[in-house]
Amino acid sequence: MTGxxxxxxxxLKKARELLLSFVEEVGADAVxxxxxxxxxxxxxxxxxxxxxxxxxxxxxxxxxxxxxxEIDHELDDIEEDAEDQRGDEES
Length: 91
What we know:
The chain has 91 residues and is α+β, with helices and mostly antiparallel strands. It is 65% helix and 20% strand. The protein is built from two helices and two strands, in the order H-E-E-H.
């Protein structure tokens, strides 16, 4: 997390507590959590991880590959819907 205010440190502590609780509940070997928070005029993105660096890196690669393909499929669906809508308007 960025910054050094007390509230940031408290949020980081809470994030770590939740992460460790999750690890214990599901028996995870590694976990990566990424979240965003919006405030007026500013959005922050934070990340917390647990597990060895190689495993976390593997998870990050997996997320990048699979999440990107999900977004690509959603974009394809949006483009197809737009084309269908244009075709309906032209008829």
